[in-house]
Each structure stands twice: as structure tokens, then as C-alpha cells.
């Protein structure tokens, strides 16, 4: 990740999430689904993300990420297939 630090400096760039839905799927396990958006000079990009989290007291934020899946939203895909998102 260090090679990406500051790669958008001085450019129009914004990231946000919306449509956040969470559900407890086990005693200590949660599923969270949300749309993640990125707006830059290249235009908007968006994907739906689903994350499975497990509570863990020793973790800095109280959760451990168990699984994550991202699917591009139709019409908001990256033009360059090599483009990757860093969550």
C-alpha cells in the first residue's frame, strides 16, 4: 500500500459509502452490506461490498474481518480492468 499513499494528491477525489445494512448472523458474527463510491477526475466508480465480521475483544476496533466481497455496480465499473480498490 505505501506505493499508493498520496497518489491522488492535488486531484479531485472523494470516497463514501451509502445504503449500509447490517445483520447479526451468529452469536459473535455480523454481515454488513454497503455501496462504496469513488469520485475522481476519471468519473464515478461504485461497487457493492459485503463484509463478514466477528467480534474480538483483543482487536483494536473490537472486530476481525473474516471475509469481504466487492462487485462493480452496472454502469460504474472501472474502465481499466487492472484498476483495483484498496479498502
UniProtKB/TrEMBL annotation:
GO terms for biological process: sucrose biosynthetic process. Gene3D superfamilies: 3.10.450.50. It holds the Pfam family S6PP_C. Residues 2-73 form the Sucrose-phosphatase C-terminal domain. One of its GO terms (molecular function) is sucrose-phosphate phosphatase activity. This is Sucrose-phosphatase C-terminal domain-containing protein. It comes from Papaver nudicaule (Iceland poppy).
